[in-house]
Design goal:
This protein is α+β, with helices and mostly antiparallel strands. The protein is 47% helix and 13% strand. The protein is built from eleven helices and nine strands. It has helices at residues 27-38, 52-72, 76-92, 119-123, 140-146, 151-174, 178-200, 207-216, 290-319, 324-330, 332-335; strands at 3-11, 14-19, 49-51, 128-130, 222-227, 230-237, 240-244, 258-260, 270-271. A six-stranded mixed sheet has the order 4-5-6-7-8-9. Strands 2-1-3 form a three-stranded antiparallel sheet. The longest helix is centred in the C-terminal third of the chain and has 30 residues, at 290-319. The chain is globular.
Length: 342
């Protein structure tokens, strides 16, 4: 049986239990539950852990309750549609424990290709956002080229452009013509534009996307957030956006509750429940806090490893200019398909 740690934090003057991410934890389900916990829409038992089956039952109850309340105020057609969506969501709910297939769109922070799994977020009244956007003002040509395409469609187009470019180049090598040269120039331009965007935004967050998150989220709003193949819980407080810290390495660190979301580079700061800088462990308490220190250091090492892997990915994508088709083909494994648990 899958079991996940519970941590008690202070939120808005109350003690709230949140779910901590273990190594193989279902991060989509955990992010939904933590939003509901912070809203006090659900509660957890007085235990140090919670099992997967209970989480699924709790979320199922939330969806049923919300669907029934909505159907009372809606007409028959809306009620039938809501019931159909609920049945679909219940059917796929258990799959959230294994991962979630996500296909982002690059024009809005809530742009995702619809799937039955994503309906679970809607039925729980949890907004899901991402920050992987194209700036239409600074990158008008790229925005026009991508349009409303999803990530999968963008990768498919990149592959097709790469193949077409090679075919035209072979024709030019045999018999060059101005028309072929013009086609090659246009295809190469589009390919480089798309590939440049994917390479430069490998962190799945852009400056424009971050600014749109700040502009769109209301102060005091809780939501789920998708980035780096991971779902987390975010909260806007006094014009700043924070990510709820659910790494298991911080389970024994009561001071560390939030992490800032201020830069796309991954550089961030940790904060207490009241959004203050946590005080360092004093040297005189080092021995008594030795185990806590180890957890803290482990969590930092895990975070540094994530950043190192992200930098390696960006270097691989931006540094390999001689084999761009290879880059495009490999890219789907970064974001799409089934996202690993956690």
């Amino acid at each position: 049986m899958d079991v996940y740690p519970i941590k008690t934090i202070q939120f808005q003057g109350k003690k709230i239990k949140i779910i901590i991410q273990n190594k193989n934890g279902p991060c989509p389900l955990i992010s939904i539950c933590n939003v509901l916990l912070l809203r006090e829409k659900i509660t957890l038992p007085e235990d140090s852990t919670v099992d997967l089956q209970l989480l699924l039952t709790i979320v199922c109850d939330v969806m049923y309750d919300r669907a029934n309340r909505k159907s009372i105020a809606e007409d028959r057609t809306a009620h039938i549609n809501a019931r159909h969506n609920l049945d679909d969501a219940i059917h796929v709910l258990s799959t959230l424990s294994r991962g979630l297939d996500v296909n982002v769109k690059f024009d809005t922070i809530n742009g995702f290709e619809y799937t039955k799994e994503l309906a679970v977020f809607d039925l729980c009244d949890v907004r899901l956002f991402h920050g992987w956007l194209v700036d239409q003002n600074l990158q008008p040509n790229l925005a026009k080229l991508i349009g409303n395409d999803s990530y999968n469609k963008l990768v498919e187009r990149s592959i097709n452009l790469s193949v077409k470019r090679d075919e035209i180049q072979q024709q030019i090598d045999q018999k060059p013509t101005p028309a072929l040269q013009q086609q090659l120039s246009q295809i190469s331009y589009e390919f480089n534009l798309l590939q440049g965007f994917l390479s430069s935004s490998a962190s799945q967050l852009t400056n424009y996307g971050l600014s749109q998150l700040h502009e769109s989220l209301q102060d005091g709003q809780l939501a789920a957030f998708f980035r780096n193949n991971h779902f987390s819980t975010i909260y806007k407080f006094r014009k700043q956006i924070y990510v709820l810290v659910t790494d298991q390495g911080f389970l024994s660190q009561p001071q560390i509750v939030w992490e800032s979301l201020r830069e796309i580079s991954g550089n961030s700061e940790f904060f207490t429940h009241d959004f203050k800088t946590p005080s360092p462990l004093s040297s005189k308490n080092f021995q008594s806090e030795e185990s806590v220190n180890r957890d803290y250091q482990l969590a930092l090492q895990l975070r540094e490893e994530e950043l190192r892997q992200l930098e390696e990915l960006e270097n691989q994508q931006s540094g390999s200019q001689k084999n761009k088709q290879k880059i495009v083909v490999a890219k789907p494994h970064v974001v799409n398909a089934i996202i690993p648990r956690g």
